Amino acid sequence: MSNLTEKEVMYDKFFELQKSVHLKNQKKIRVGLKLNILLPLIFLVICFLSNRSKLVFLVLWIVSLFGISFYLLYVEYMDFKLQEQMKEFGIIEHDDPQALIGNEVVQGIDDIKNARKEMVQDIKEIKMEIRSEIEKEKQEIAREREEIRKELKKDIQTVGDKLKK
């Protein structure tokens, strides 16, 4: 009986350890994403503020982007392997491993697509309004031009009649 409880305790400890590692990986991803933005910006600012060779800072900028990207890939891969182990041991039931950053990115992309569709619809509506206003203006201009033409004809006839007299 104590053997069973020892296994349960070991199982619980293993599960808690795996959970804590997953949470740490999520924090590492957040830090990595922040570094992926800040470190290249720092190199870029230093590049423009210093009078030294811009090529050195450009190379440092590119290397930092690659390094941080590889770090993020490594953390994501290790978390993926961890989830596979947990699935193999029967700790988790779902077939698809949970991505550390995938859900937010997919949701963000969907939000961007929806916003884009709304903007395109708004632009189409504004375009139709502008076209109708342009048509109204064209009709107004054509009507005014016709009135001016009629007035000019009357004036010409009046001048012609006065010249005949």
UniProtKB/TrEMBL annotation:
Keywords, sorted A to Z: Coiled coil, Membrane, Transmembrane, Transmembrane helix
Keyword Transmembrane in annotation: yes
Positions of transmembrane segments: 33-51, 57-77
Coiled coil: 109-158
Domain of life from the UniProt record: Bacteria
Protein name, as recorded: Uncharacterized protein
Organism (species): Pseudobutyrivibrio xylanivorans
